[in-house]
Design goal:
It contains eight helices and seven strands, in the order E-H-E-H-H-H-E-E-H-H-E-H-E-E-H. With about 200 residues, it is of the alpha/beta class. Strands 1, 2, 3, 4, 5, 6 and 7 form a seven-stranded mixed beta sheet that branches.
Length: about 200
């Protein structure tokens, strides 16, 4: 069974989260995990000015996702940073090209899940995931979140992302904060949860 992870990460925070989700999904027996990026839409000059060029180069070994890979997967976990409470433009452009998959019903009944990152604690993590779900529902996907059986989303002794809608991390205003152990554990839990749900749907 294939779990496809499709993401965009400008500074590497979402990349780290989806790597944890991949480990979680891969811990489930007979599950193959594939990680893919969506195409970059910004020119190199702009990425350099934004201080994101080095991070992009570190991710360059990860292949760009194709529409056929979406159709072939049994479950898809999407990762995107939040942009004003919504998914980033790179992810939006990629999804806007999936019209032919929608016509064929190629994603119907597949598990779909979302992971995100924001600069601030209230920077739109929940609205990004919830608004992303609209696209998944149009494709007929079965939405899988992060249930409260992941107790880490109940902590009160520190700053942390993660909600019942999906795992998330907080990058900080300057991007210096890296995903915490609790946030990575949330992503791992979500990856494993998605894989188990997908196996039940396939059977």
């Amino acid at each position: 069974m294939k779990v496809l992870i499709v993401y965009y990460s400008m500074y590497g925070h979402v990349h780290k989260m989806v790597e944890a989700a991949a480990q979680g999904a891969g811990s489930v027996e007979d599950v193959e995990v594939i990680i893919r990026r969506v195409p970059e839409t910004l020119p190199e000059e702009v990425l350099k000015k934004m201080g994101a060029l080095e991070s992009q180069k570190l991710q360059s070994h990860i292949p760009i996702c194709t529409l056929d890979e979406l159709a072939d997967a049994d479950a898809v976990i999407f990762g995107t940073p939040t942009r004003f409470g919504n998914m980033c433009a790179q992810m939006r452009q990629f999804l806007d090209a999936t019209g032919q998959l929608w016509v064929r019903g190629a994603l119907v009944a597949k598990a779909g899940s979302v992971i995100t990152s924001s600069n601030t604690q209230h920077g739109g993590q929940e609205s990004t995931i919830l608004s992303f779900h609209t696209t998944l529902l149009h494709h007929g996907m079965v939405i899988v979140g992060l249930p409260y059986t992941f107790k880490g989303q109940m902590i009160m002794d520190g700053i942390s992302g993660c909600s019942p809608y999906g795992a998330s991390t907080i990058a900080g205003g300057d991007g210096s904060r890296q995903p915490s152990e609790n946030e990575l554990e949330g992503a791992y839990f979500q990856g494993e949860h998605v894989a188990r749900i997908a196996k039940k749907l396939k059977s």
